[in-house]
Write a structure and sequence with these properties.
Helix content is 78%, strand content 1%. It is an all-alpha fold.
Length: 431
């Protein structure tokens, strides 16, 4: 159950004053640090293998990156509804800790496959699918922990600080992975395995989080249906979830960063390579971290709906500009800009969804939201790869950025509940 505060004096000044929240934060940061590095190396190895060992053209190899996103997403279609039910029926922190240990095994398998030169395209696709399956079960349970250990009044700040852990991991993970990969291709996976073990231990030390009462008496299949119907009938939640789904589905440029690193962007006349890829993957999170620090110190409190929509539009504009850039430094700055805009959108949307959803439904709603986010990311990679095969990498990125802006315009009028939302509350305000 959520922490109960009976007096104003008993309310902590910050979520970080709560020991369980600190453990949650460390576990989340370590896990994101590990997985973001793993995904960067996986994508680069896949693209490099397709271009080198398999002799594919740039467009054909880019399409393999699209398939890479697809195979990470398919397990989530199958398991996301089940993951949401589990998060509403069992101890959420135990689910996160146990399943994170499974991701340790995936990282170790990739390290060994790299050391002994066993990696092939089919094997990389299998590893990507297993990693996607593991993350499917972690997402809903992890997203639902914070409201159970943090007072509602501190939730906006807790969401901002939690998002910061994701951004810090996403900044350091890809950058370090690029450096480690240059030293030895297996090192990023070995380091990821250690970090995932730390994440599992830190999360496991959170006090038990019992599931909401009553959920054990409902058939799991009925619970899955209830979660889907709840989101479908609630236009506010539906607008939040689908805005992210379609905007990022079109606007994601990260899937094609290996193409830019190997074949488009130059530094002193040479391709920026794996090190440049690590920097490019880190820049969106660096921009997001700067904004996250500002939000954690002074959370956004007014006109939150309009600001969320403007942030998504800014994300699309920066994405299109990145697609056209041929200057490495300018490209890094544009990636930081789109990351900053995405951070504003993510902070507002996650806070609204968490506060708008009753605890008994939070796991299932989080699984649906997580599925939409994964669809926007992994299917976005598929869309980018397919678009790159048809339009080239530049055309694909520009097309996606413009599409994200158009989606924002459409959603502004299709879901007026979003732009009318003034402030965070347990029920969104339209006045």
């Amino acid at each position: 159950m959520p922490r109960r505060v009976t007096t104003r004096e008993a309310l902590p000044s910050s979520p970080l004053a709560i020991a369980d929240y600190r453990r949650f934060w460390v576990g989340r940061c370590a896990a994101v640090f590990a997985t973001s590095g793993m995904v960067v190396v996986l994508g680069y190895q896949l693209y490099d293998l397709a271009r080198g060992s398999y002799g594919m053209s740039i467009r054909a190899a880019a399409f393999q990156l699209g398939l890479f996103g697809l195979v990470q997403f398919l397990p989530q279609i199958l398991f996301a509804p089940v993951a949401g039910v589990l998060a509403d029926r069992f101890d959420r922190r135990a689910i996160v800790a146990v399943v994170t240990l499974a991701d340790v095994l995936v990282a170790l398998a990739l390290a060994l496959g790299t050391v002994f030169s066993l990696l092939t395209l089919p094997l990389l696709f299998v590893m990507a699918a297993l990693h996607g399956a593991v993350r499917t079960f972690i997402g809903p349970a992890q997203s639902s922990i914070a409201p159970n250990i943090v007072p509602a009044a501190l939730m906006p700040r807790a969401v901002a600080i939690s998002a910061m852990s994701w951004q810090i991991g996403s900044v350091a993970g890809p950058a370090l992975a690029g450096v480690l990969f240059a030293l030895h291709p297996a090192l990023p996976y070995a380091v990821s395995a250690v970090l995932l073990l730390i994440a599992a231990i830190s999360t496991g030390r959170i006090r038990p989080v019992p599931p909401p009462p009553g959920n054990h008496h409902t058939h799991p299949l009925r619970q899955i249906g209830e979660g889907m119907v709840y989101v479908w009938r609630d236009r506010f939640l539906l607008g939040c979830v689908t805005l992210d789904l379609f905007a990022v589905l079109l606007g994601g440029a990260t899937a094609l960063l290996p193409v830019y690193a190997r074949d488009i962007l130059l530094w002193h006349g040479h391709p920026v390579g794996s090190f440049g890829l690590g920097l490019m993957r880190a820049m969106p999170s660096l921009g997001a971290s700067v904004i996250g620090l500002i939000i954690a110190r002074s959370p956004i409190e007014r006109d939150v709906g309009a600001r969320m929509l403007l942030a998504v539009a800014a994300f699309g504009i920066a994405t299109a500009a990145f697609g056209l850039s041929r200057n490495f430094i300018v490209s890094l700055a544009l990636l930081a800009t789109l990351g900053a805009a995405d951070m504003v959108s993510v902070f507002i949307r996650n806070t609204l969804v968490q506060l708008h959803t009753p605890d008994a439904m939070r796991g299932r709603v989080s699984s649906i939201s997580g599925l939409a986010i994964s669809a926007s990311n992994e299917l976005g990679e598929m869309e980018s790869g397919l678009a790159a095969a048809l339009l080239g990498a530049t055309g694909a990125v520009v097309f996606g950025g413009v599409g994200a802006v158009l989606i924002t315009v459409i959603w502004t009028f299709a879901f007026p509940e979003l732009r009318r939302t003034r402030a965070f509350s347990t029920h969104y305000a339209e006045t």
